[in-house]
Amino acid sequence: MSRRLALVLLVVFAVPALALAADTDPQRKINPADERKAASIVFKKTDFAAGWKRTTTRSDDENVSCSFYDPDGSDLTLTGDAEAEFEHTGGFPSVLSYADIYATSTDAAAAWTRTVKLALARCLAQFFKTEVSEPGTKVSVVNYGRIAFPRVAPRTAAFRINVKMIVTQSGKTVTVPLTLHIVVVGRGRAEAGYLTFAPSPGVAADDLRRFAALLAERMKVAGF
Fold first, then answer.
1. Domain at 195, CATH number
2. Which residues in the chain come in under a pLDDT of 50?
3. Domain range for 9
4. What is the tally of structural domains in the chain?
5. Residue range 156-185, pLDDT digits in tens
6. DSSP class per residue in 64-115
7. What is the mean pLDDT of the chain?
């Protein structure tokens, strides 16, 4: 089950620009310099304590969109991107990070305006519920919304999604409350973010802030 959950969550970052559907993805004009910058921003194994490992789960090119959230980035241009996924022993918590570099600051700002909004959290909650629910497993969304967060970069946003997973096996039923946090930061041509996934109440607030500050600092070091 933990691998299935990780697969579902990685879908969110499997395409450039947060949660855009395939036919509305930004144009890709990747160049080596921006690709290296993107790779320098995402999380590294040294960012985590002992017991964490990098994983290589890949999605099946599935894309996230909802009737109320289907942003169009087809007029934007992406010049670099990177992803990195880490998990603790046993699969929880899990942290997935990404970095996108756009051709211009205007493109990056437009991508932010179109994608980083409350509807994103609502859509991801709906997607998670649909994809994880299967015979013997039922997922319900408890709540979702923006959360207060320090402005570590010119563009900063954070969301929380609380879900409840009810698993029935061999006649026994177990209820597991889970929390997803989504934090996104942007500066100049760069946007970076991460999604954390853990039993409720989720990854500690201090760690969420530390992760965000780390991405923000690396964007500055990369020249954004």
1. 3.40.1000
2. 1-4, 7, 10-17, 59-61
3. 2-221
4. 1
5. 999 999 999 888 878 888 888 989 999 999
6. --BTTB----TTSEEEEEEEEEEEETTS-SEEEEEEEEESSHHHHHHHHHHH
7. 85
In angstroms, the first-to-last Cα distance of the chain is 39
With beta carbons less than 8 A apart as the criterion, state whether 2 and 91 touch: yes
Strands 77-88 and 27-28, sheet pairing: parallel
Cβ–Cβ < 8 Å for 124, 196: no
What lies within 8 Å, CB to CB, of 135 at 6+ separation is none
- Structure confidence at residue 3 (pLDDT): 46
Token pair in block for residue 215: 């991405």
Could you give the 3-state DSSP secondary structure of residue 185? strand
> Is the overall model pTM greater than 0.90, yes or no?
no
Alpha-carbon distance of 81 to 214, in angstroms, equals 17
